Amino acid sequence: MSRLDRTRIAAVAAVLLATTAGCGSAGRSDDPGTGSTTPASAHGAWLLRFGTAGGADGERSGAVYVSYDPETGKASARRVPGVVAADASQDEQVLLVSAGHHWAIADTRVPRSQGRAGRVLLYSVADDTTETLDMRAVAGDASLTPVAAAFDPTDDHMLRVVDKRRGVWKVDLAAGSATREEVLPKRAGWIFGNGFDKTTGEPYIESIDSFRTDPAGNGDDDTRPVERQGGTLLRYDGTDVAGLPKAPCGFAGGFRDDDGAWLFCADTPSIAAYRLSGDGQSWQAYGTPSPRIVPGAAVEMTFALPPIG
Predict the structure, then answer these.
(1) Could you tell me the pTM of the whole model?
(2) For the segment 142-165, what is each residue's pLDDT rounded down to a tens digit?
(3) pLDDT single digits (tens) 73-112
């Protein structure tokens, strides 16, 4: 959920006290599987994306990716540089990380300095390394200028890149090759605003005076849930989520699939995991909280994605 930094700072102390008082009733078990069957998605590290804000007016948005294994409590963080006036919507931010949780980009908009050089910078989610994608080399076009990019939601090796001439390229990062799959149409009153369909990862154009998009369904009135890895992302904005019990914290993100639902609370500097009870009436504390890893400038948990494999 989104919240102001000052709200978070004021809430941390109160939540710490409340968590201490309520831990006994929450029943966090030394055995993460106690009381119910542990779904396959429980095993391994989840990928959590924290949106951050900086600048005098919070105009610079960035991201910190946290890999967290609730069974062991182990966690690591990777900060991606912020951008001013990001183009990726909240739903589209899941397209900023590769399907296999290996690489990330800062925004769907390619920074002008990278575009002028024909390059797109990729950030490793696991460590502080980066990799430069030379679009001119892989596409065989010395004049190509990338302006937008997004990862494919299912193919770990695929990045889609839109160039200045509206050509759409499918880049195979493993093979180091690129294929132009289409050219976005041009029509009066429509623009390409660096938007990509949250479900397919394909770029779309949009009307400047309505919610219409081509392909259809990507406007500001789009209410489709964000689906990934066989489930649906859960976001908390301070209100209850239909069909789920009240969250045990005020700052969280989660995931729901056929095996149940997961919630990750980050009101404190440590992340705590919860599982939906078998009867669906309460959240049960799960596993081991992380070390102090929640970024101080975090304003939202954009998504929580289950382990791969």
Answers:
(1) 0.85
(2) 999 999 999 999 999 999 999 999
(3) 999 999 999 999 899 999 999 999 999 999 999 999 999 9
State how far the Cα of 153 lies from the Cα of 208, in Å rounded to an integer. 27
User: Which residues form the domain of 106?
Assistant: 5-305
Q: How far apart are CA 48 and CA 306, in angstroms?
A: 9
By the 10 Å C-beta count (0-12 exposed, 13-18 middle, 19+ buried), 217 is classed as middle
Total domain count for the chain?
1
Residue 26 to residue 29: CA distance in whole angstroms = 9
d(CA 23, CA 174): 46
Distances (CA, A) of 63 to 154, 226, 298: 21, 19, 8
Handedness of CA 249, 303, 197, 3 (dihedral sign): positive
DSSP string over the chain: ----HHHHHHHHHHHHHHHHHHHHHHT--SSTTTTSPPPGGGSS-EEEEEEEEESTTS-EEEEEEEEE-TTT--EEEEEEEEEES--S-TGGGGGGB-TTS-EE-S-SBPPHHHHHTTEEEEEESSSS-EEEEEHHHHHT-TT--EEEEEE-SS-TTEEEEEETT-EEEEEETTTTEEEEEEE----TTEEEEEEE-TTT--EEEEESSSS-EESSS-STT--PPPEETTEEEEE-SSSPPTTSPPPSSSSEEEEEETTEEEEEE-SSSB-EEEEE-TTSSSEEEES----B-S-TTEEEEEEEEPPP-
